[in-house]
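Consider this pair:
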Amino acid sequence: MISMPGTWEWIAIVIVFFIIFGKKLPGMMRTAGKSIAEFKKGFKGVEEKLSDIKEVKQDIDNIKNFKIG
């Protein structure tokens, strides 16, 4: 049966990770940060578009419900 690694196993995994990727880690983190920032920027754009669509839909509903005398 395979179980989750314990505390010492995690420490060993982290040490091996830093030995292998130590010099590349700052660049990887910088790239990850830029990717997250781009994702948030794109998501904000989608939210703005949805807001615009809701406003247009509300205007259309108001026009449909408008009755003349």
Summary: Residues 25-65 form the longest helix (41 residues). The radius of gyration is 26 Å. The chain is about 80% helix and 0% strand.
